[in-house]
Each structure stands twice: as structure tokens, then as C-alpha cells.
Amino acid sequence: MKSLHNKSLIVTASIFVSMFSLPVQASFNWSFTSGCGNGSQVVSCSQNSNGNIATATAWSTKSSSPTAQLEQGTLGRWDGLGVTNTGEGTSSPNHATDNSGRYDSILFNFTTAVALTQVSMGWVQNDADFSLLRYIGDGSGSPDNLTNETYSGLTSGGSWELVGNYNSFSGGADNQTANVNGSGVNYNGSNINSDLTKTSSLWLVAAMNGNWGWTDSNKDYFKLKSLAGYTPPPPDIPGVPEPSTLALMSMSFLAFGFTQRRRKRNLALD
Known about the structure:
By secondary structure, this protein is an alpha+beta fold. The chain has two domains: 2-21 and 241-269; 26-231, no CATH class. The chain has helices at 2-21, 151-156, 243-269, and strands at residues 26-31, 41-42, 44-49, 52-61, 70-72, 74-78, 80-84, 97-98, 104-126, 130-135, 160-166, 177-179, 186-187, 190-191, 200-207, 220-231. A hairpin with a 2-residue loop joins strand 3 (44-49) and strand 4 (52-61). It is globular.
């Protein structure tokens, strides 16, 4: 009986330790190479990774001006997601996410806030230069509805932050990956956003449009193939014990309970 009681205490202690030792960081990878219309046009496209759903919608300027207001377009999935707007047809390369004519972008709405770490492209023509923005507003209104917004107004209004401009794609090579929100991608010689604590539930991938101080003569066409990201550990809060501390506390309480139980039993036998 005593042996069984000891085993129960050990099992209980193990459960407590495992509860407070579980990793609090989750990794995600959303692939857009299947579903999502399979070549036909859809209003939105959702993919699930470990319970975190990424819902994509398409946005384009209403005219050929990069400062024009935005309207919602449609998404088509070929070798990744492309955008079609009201001013262009669905023939190649216009069904790509591009800056030829009107300026396209894809908005991703996540179930849980994430730090994006990778943007991967499938099909690419010319270049695949893009800008990455994250929503930092208070969530009021409908931040996932960009109708009549402008690209420049998103950041100047303070609700969105430019995370970086990325020109790592050149020569029209397919299946390239940009490491965003970290090392490996440079623009004008400086590292872009090495702060991995930048998280949001809304991220915008926009074909280069000049609103954030970046232009070149090449037209950009790409199909967005996948995203990767993670939920970082929460920051330390003063006065709240670390997980390891909580585990030690739990073990101490269990040991104390075991000692008291054994003491009472010994007293009863005297």
C-alpha cells in the first residue's frame, strides 16, 4: 500500500512538472498549393496550421496609380496565390500578384497573432519584390476590410507598420524563399527587421508600389506559395513565477504532503 502511495505521488509530481515544462512557442506553416479554388477565382482562401487558420483576401488599387484607393479583388490558386482585380483579365501573367497596371496585395488574417518568419513564392516572372506590413492598431472597426483605404494611408494613419521591403527575388527564378522578420534578407545594405517579437493577427504582402520609398524599373509578378511563422513566448511579467519555478514549487508541495502523511502514520503506530 505504501509503495502504491509513493508511486501515485511520483506520477502526480511528473504531471505537474510536465505541465509547467511544456514549450509555449508554437510553429506554423501555411501552404497555398492546394484548395483555394484550384485555378478558379475565389473571394477568400483559408488554410489551417496547427489550429491557427490563415484567411487570405485580395486587394488592389482602383486605378493604375499606386496612391489610389483600394478595392477587394479575387484570388486564384495556381502555383501559389495570385490576385485578379476589376481592371485586368485572368490570363497570365495578370492573374499573379503584381504591380502591372493596378497594384496588388494579399491580406492574411490569422486566428492567433503570429510573427511571420518566411514568405515563399511559387511562380515568378521578372521580379517578386514585395513589402510586408503588420497591423498594430487597437482592433476597432474592421481592420481586415481595406475598402477605400490607400497603401500610404495604412502606415501614415498609425494602424499599420512597414516591417520591411524585400528584393531577394531576381531573374525570374521560381520557388524562392525570403526570410522575413529575421536574418538573411537585406535592402540597401541593412538588415530588415531582426525583431522577432513583432507579431500581429493581420499581415499584408504587397507587390512593390513605391509608397514606402522603394521603386525599380522591373515589373513584379508572383504567386505566393506559403507562409511560415510562430507564436513567441510571452514576455516575463514581474511577480509571476517562471515555469521552472512553478514546477519546483509544485514538487516542494508534494514532498511536504508526503512527509506529513508519513509523520501522521508513524505517530499512529507509536
